[in-house]
Write a structure and sequence with these properties.
Strand order of the largest sheet: 1-2
Helix content: 55-70%
Distance between the termini: 150 Å
Largest sheet: 2 strands, antiparallel
Order of helices and strands: EEHHHEEEHE
Length: 233
C-alpha cells in the first residue's frame, strides 16, 4: 500500500513502520515481481495438474489393461475348461466304445466257447472212445501197473478200477481208489475243459505231451504226474 507525497515519489505506508530504506526497496521489488511470480506459480500449478492428469490417465490405462488381461485370462480359462471338458467327453466316449467292443468280443468268445463245449459234449463219448482206442491193451495195462507201483511205494493199496473206459465226470479218465480217490488215469486232454473238477485231483498221464495238453486246458501242472512211459502206439 502506497501514497503520493507532493507528486514527487511514492512512499509506502509500510515505510512508516520500517526504519530501513533497503527494506522499502525490497518491498518495491517484491511487488514489482509479484505478477511474474504469480505467472510462474500458475505455470507450476498447470504443470502439476498436467502431471496429475497424466498420472490419472496412466492409472486409467493400467486399470483398462488389467481388466483386459483379466478378461483375456477368463476367456482363456473358459476355453481351456471347454477343451478339457471336450477331452473328458471324448475320453468317456472312447472308454464306452472300448467297453462295448470288449463286451462284444467277450460275447463272441463266449459264443465260440459255448459252441465248442456243445460240440464236445455232443461228441464226448466218441472222442473218448477214440482216445482210449489209440492205446493198445498192453499200454493200458502198463499204465495202470505203473500207477499201482507208485501208490504201493507210498503205502497205498489201490483197488481194481471198475471201468477201463473212463467216466464222463473226469473227462473219461479212470478214477482209482485207495481208501479214497487216489487219482485219475489218464483223462482225455480234449475233454478236460468239460471237467473243472480235474483241477483238484491227482492226474496220471503217460507222456510229457499229454501233460502239456492238460496244462494248456487249465489243469495246474503240480496236479499232473507224468509216468514217462513209451509213446509208441
Amino acid at each position: 500500500m502506497s501514497q503520493t507525497v507532493e507528486d514527487v515519489y511514492e512512499i509506502f505506508v509500510r515505510d512508516l513502520w520500517w526504519t530501513s530504506r533497503k527494506s522499502a526497496h525490497a518491498q518495491v521489488e517484491y511487488e514489482r515481481f509479484r505478477p511474474q511470480r504469480e505467472a510462474e506459480a500458475r505455470v507450476r500449478e498447470a504443470e502439476r495438474e498436467k502431471r496429475a492428469a497424466e498420472a490419472a490417465h496412466r492409472r486409467d490405462e493400467r486399470a483398462v489393461q488389467h481388466r483386459r488381461r483379466r478378461m483375456e485370462a477368463a476367456r482363456k480359462g473358459r476355453k481351456a475348461r471347454a477343451a478339457q471338458e471336450e477331452r473328458e467327453r471324448e475320453g468317456r466316449q472312447e472308454a464306452a466304445r472300448l467297453h462295448r467292443a470288449q463286451v462284444e468280443e467277450r460275447r463272441a468268445r463266449d459264443g465260440v466257447e459255448r459252441a465248442r463245449r456243445t460240440a464236445l459234449e455232443r461228441d464226448a463219448a466218441g472222442i473218448a472212445a477214440a482216445w482210449w482206442a489209440s492205446l493198445s491193451p498192453a499200454q493200458v495195462e502198463e499204465m495202470f501197473a505203473a500207477v499201482c507201483e507208485e501208490a504201493e511205494e507210498g503205502g497205498v493199496a489201490l483197488s481194481k478200477p471198475r471201468a477201463r473206459a473212463g467216466v464222463p465226470a473226469f473227462a473219461y479218465g479212470v478214477p482209482v481208489h485207495g481208501g479214497g480217490l487216489y487219482g485219475v488215469v489218464p483223462p482225455c486232454p480234449a475233454l478236460a475243459i468239460l471237467s473243472p473238477q480235474l483241477a483238484f485231483q491227482r492226474i496220471f498221464v503217460r507222456t510229457t505231451d499229454e501233460a502239456h495238453e492238460l496244462i494248456s486246458s487249465g489243469i495246474p501242472p503240480w496236479r499232473i504226474r507224468d509216468l514217462e512211459l513209451s509213446d509208441t502206439r
